[in-house]
């Protein structure tokens, strides 16, 4: 009787397990059909060639704002805190008043905070705002009163009046000077050195005159990118955000489920599945490959569940053209036999305990009958 009871209990648990077998399972059979509030909050969309074509038609390519492309820097204009080196040929007392044996910086001429500088024989000169050629000509003209046909040359030893600030996921954050060579966004980011592991390449922001301009640093890989043509000016700020808040979550019956970092603005479904080692060939249900999007805003709009029938490897041709978005959840459901095997693996220890108890009870009954 005890053995029969054990079998009955095990059968009952097994029957219940068929209805509520362990492991996650996404049931889409009633989505949009039963009229329940839960159903109305989910929209099931098959991934088909037609959907791919529609997405491609509506996709907007990242572009550089026209006002940024319109800015073209002119000749460098001297400013406060710049250090100038002025050469008057055949007149070392004017070129290197501290002595030729001194470091070249020791003979530099500092432009004061008020924009003026002192020069022998001439006195105070308002240098700020003048180009190098304008200041050179001004000094040469004034020196003609004291020097016969002065030959004057002028260069900037240290650029300090115009600068940009770069911060975020870079290795060399801080200020960069603007020099006589115009500085582009690409050159500035190259000097600052992007942190390749932690940077959100698609999230670069340029702040100019109180306005923010989004730029996509990853677009440099695209044909015809205009990012090389964006020049910086004094006071610009560049910020490259970290990618720690932009993830793709891959879970379910894949070989290495985990969160993937979303570094750029393009990651397709095949990329994500390939990065985690592909589908588990012994436990996955190829018809249960889902991309869940918008789960974080269910209070305001329904989540979209995109389904790809990946039972055939050829389906991944569609996966290579289905672009993911940050915070997407990629879920691969288990095959029916997988769920049953997991149930059995949990029931076997219970069956063993019941069997041991039944055997012990039977032995006690036999002993008492003797």
From TrEMBL:
| Top-level lineage group | Bacteria
Residue ranges of the SLBB domain? 162-239, 246-332
Q: Which Pfam families match?
A: Poly_export (PF02563), SLBB_2 (PF22461), Wza_C (PF18412)
The GO cellular component terms are: cell outer membrane; pore complex
Where in the cell is the protein located? Answer: Cell outer membrane
Q: Which UniProt keywords apply?
A: Cell outer membrane, Ion transport, Lipoprotein, Membrane, Palmitate, Polysaccharide transport, Porin, Signal, Sugar transport, Transmembrane, Transmembrane beta strand, Transport
An annotated GO BP:
monoatomic ion transport
Which stretches make up the Outer-membrane lipoprotein Wza C-terminal domain?
335-357
Report domain Polysaccharide export protein N-terminal positions: 73-156
Q: How does it sit in the membrane?
A: Multi-pass membrane protein
GO MF terms, alphabetically ordered: polysaccharide transmembrane transporter activity; porin activity
Q: What is its main location?
A: membrane
What family is this protein classified in?
Belongs to the BexD/CtrA/VexA family.
Protein's name in the database: Capsular biosynthesis protein
Species per Swiss-Prot/TrEMBL record: Pseudomonas fluorescens
